[in-house]
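To whoever picks this up:

The nightly regression suite flagged Arginine/agmatine antiporter as changed. Nothing in the input moved, so I suspect the structure step. Input below, exactly as stored in the fixture:
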Amino acid sequence: MMAANAQAVIGEADRDKGLVRGMGAIAFAAAIANEVVGAGIYRLPAAMAAAAGVASPLAYLGCLVAMGAVVLCFAEGGSRVPTSGGPYGVIAAALGPMAGFVAGVLLYLSCVLALGGVAAAFADTADAAFPALEGTGARIGIIVVALGGIAWINVAGVETAARIISWATFVKVLPLIFFVIVGGIAILSGHSTSTPLPHRPGEGIGEAVILALFALSGMESPLAASGEVTNPTRNIPRALILGMGAIGLLYILIQLVAQGLLGAGLIGSKAPLADALGMLDPRLRALMLVAASFSMLCWLASDLLGAPRMLFAFARDGTIPALFGRLHPRRKTPHVAIWIHALLAMALAITGTFKQLAIFASLAAAGLYLLGCGSAWVLRRRDVALLGDPLALPGLPLIAIIGMGSMVAIIGLGQWSEIGAFLAVCVLSALGFLMMQRIKRA
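Regenerated output under the current build:
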């Protein structure tokens, strides 16, 4: 057993040969914040209010406690196996390649469901901005054009797509900070609504916690760059704690401001942040609609750049059909994976709603976090450390138990149909991995 573990560790270390460790804690925290602060926050306050009413901020707090344990486990696990692939490397090193594959499937499923959900929210925002576009036909057209156009850009070349994303994403947090400042000042000045949100003690709080997990998930994607972080045993945990703490505070403030300005009107709003500031000045509503659309397009572009590469990697590893690993003959991009990913997201966005897709994506992320917490504990027991002294959190076993228990509880908050679908994905992924291994051996 020890020899097998040593071979696995050597393999993880070799994976990072040639990479330059040039990313510090602040830069890595910014990368985490950039990925976690997604476009869904422009739509989420309304869904949270519909689920839990005035108790919505408490759902964020409850989810933050659960995510705090997950973040700490990912911090120690990432410091012990600071390898490219992030959670894949950590989970595979601790629990084996099959668990790593299941984690990869859960991460991909979370990505494609989130892509469909944000595309649906983008169509809703367009309806709010241009009432003439309301209707099923126009909604489908918006989704197809948005996802199809971004997929075409990604197929044209990774350099073009990366330049567009890099130029655009650095401004997406500014409108959210503007919303909190302007809305907060307005509330303190007496501009709060006269129709507050209803009190729903216990009612819908579970659904709200699942939605909050959707808003706070995403740290696992930047962790794929762990092989390029300087002093990883210190900077990975620092970046995780700094980035996730700041994001949690921002989201709670956004929810409080939206509830304070709109009250009961928050429920059912298709563009809650825009509608909230629109009560102060119609020009602010137009500004927030533009910001929301811009942020959603940035997030769609980012997901379509990264997530299809998971399909490509699976195909190259022989765990899914080789068709997904084909490259464009001239552009040298994984065009088949990109278009399949975009088509799946189109189908999800057209047939589902933001809220439904966000819940499914959250359950997939919860499964990934469950595996990540368990992996950190296993790596601690085996005393695995690839690069110097790792982070050694006091009470890690208890933290891991809290993280795993929280994720199990969040999965349990879903509907039976949702839980059944989640378990079926895990079982089918494991069976698929075993089948592909048999085929390769044969």
